[in-house]
Amino acid sequence: MTSDLAEDLSTVLGGAAIAGLRRLSGGASRETWAFTADGRDLILQRTRPAGGMGAPSMAVEDALLAAAEAAGVPVPAVLVAADDAGPLAPARITAAVPGEALGPRLVRAERTDEGRRALAAQMGSALAAIHSIPLDEHPALERKDSLEGARNGLDLVGEARPAFELALRWLHENRPPPTPDTVVHGDFRIGNLLVDGDELTAVLDWELAHRGDPLEDLGWLCVRAWRFGGDHEVGGLADLDDLLAGYTAARGVDVDPAHVRWWSAAGTLMWGLICAVQARRHLDGHIRSVELATIGRRVCENEYDLLGLIGVGPSPALEPAPPLDLHGRPTAEELLDAVRSHLTDEIAPLLDGAPAFSLKVVDRALATVQREVARAGVIPPIPDEAALAAAIRSGAVDPDDELRAAIRATVVERLKVANPKWLHPEDRSQVR
Asked: SS3 for 43?
């Protein structure tokens, strides 16, 4: 496959010598490849099978990239547009841009407070430039409403969760006044931005661009999932005031931080839906993938964050019942521990690149199963969540503090299995 792709790239680039072709980690709907052509570092991006549903075409993206560049947004230079990629079409070839995109590395990099503030201000300036792109020049961009899309999407994939229904109700009751529509990037976050030192060098991944409220972009950047363990509200790197200072200076409009935080809550709900959709692609057999399967267990991270954002506080911890000694030792939990140790100690040192990453995904899946086995005796406070979610949606139940606490206790128990590191300290008690 790689040799065929190299041959096609050479054809598209006028017979250039192709070297160093390698697949990069990428999103669910696009393949990304790095390579050199006659010694020049380039990037290929093309649509994956069964990917890109509901996204603008790559040709629409090309026009948007050109407009973004004209507006002053740092973007990679397009060398071959989607419709001009010959046997690869639709595909785009761009110049490689220096910088780091991997979230954990960006967040853990040493930076001064001044550097953090400067980087956040550049992000704000880039968003202001995106929101200045004339909408009438891009009529193919669809308008999207986050709440309507989240509600319909949750119903479509069968995610009936009381925590999400509480969040939907809160979001509807507290929605800020609408801001005039602009171009919205749709996925402006750590992981889709190239950073070199303290400089923002490129805004990537425009496949979710649409028209809508510009504050959606600012709120999405502040979703906890894109902080990668960092303490700061903006991508784990900086404070919201620093982002808004850059945005206001570039766009000349004041933004209420409370409105951005509302959009961050809406974005958290949307990310929960996206996790569920990705898992559904695996479960329905469209793409069999352990990575997509494990993403499905991340839905509860978003339940947990949403409950915190809407003011539902800590609840008592639950403890598993003593396990039955039916099969003797090693227990299922001990067997899983042995398998994980073998993979990490014996197999992992033999791998690098994509196979090493795949092994990490497998280990995370096994760790989740191991924790679930360990807590198999726990009985959640709300065993029939689907019925309660429907009752909240219909208005038949107006959850009081006791019921909200029970909803949160159920979510915390789910998260103790899925990803206990996501829990705040007050909820980490007695997590195995």
From this structure: strand
Q: Which helix (H) or strand (E) holds 166?
A: helix 162-173
CA distance 217 to 21: 33
Residue 340: CA count within 13 A, CB half-sphere: 18
What does residue 111 show for φ and ψ, rounded to 5 degrees? -145, 145
Residues forming beta bridges with residue 91, ordered by sequence position: 46
Amino acid of residue 135: L
- Which DSSP state fits 324? P
Q: DSSP readout, 260-318?
A: HHHHHHHHHHHHHHHHHHHHHHHHTTSS--HHHHHHGGGHHHHHHHHHHHTT-------
173-193 pLDDT, tens digit per residue, is: 999 998 999 999 999 999 999
* Phi, psi angles (nearest 5°) of residue 292: -65, -35
Are 201 and 97 within 8 A, CB to CB?
A: yes
| Residue 325 to residue 348: CA distance in whole angstroms | 33
CA-CA distance, 403 to 361, in Å (whole number)? 35
Q: Which residues contact 54 (CB under 8 A, 6 or more apart)?
A: none
Higher per-residue pLDDT: 129 or 313: 129
Single out the residue of 421, 426, 387, 424 nearest to residue 407, CA to CA. 387
- Helices 240-251, 113-130: crossing angle, 10 deg rounding: 40
Q: Which two tokens stand for residue 170?
A: 């809160």
Nearest-angstrom CA–CA distance, 9 and 21: 10
Distance CA 413, CA 405 (A): 12
Residue indicated by tokens 């017979």: 15
Residue indicated by tokens 């119903």: 155
- For residue 31, CA distances in Å to 24, 321, 378 come to 8, 46, 42
At 425, the amino acid letter reads P
Query: Which H or E element spans position 104?
Result: helix 103-108
The pTM of this model reads 0.92
Class of residue 199 by CB neighbours under 10 A (exposed 0-12, middle 13-18, buried 19+): middle
Which residue type does 303 have?
E
Q: Which residue carries 């006659």 as its tokens?
A: 38
Half-sphere exposure of 183 (CA within 13 A, CB side): 31
Give the tens place of pLDDT for each residue, 332-383.
998 999 999 999 999 999 998 878 989 999 999 999 999 999 998 888 889 8
What distance in Å separates the CA atoms of residue 428 and residue 432, rounded to the nearest whole number?
9
Contact between 413 and 423 under an 8 Å Cβ cutoff? The reply is no
Q: The tokens of 216 are what?
A: 């959606």
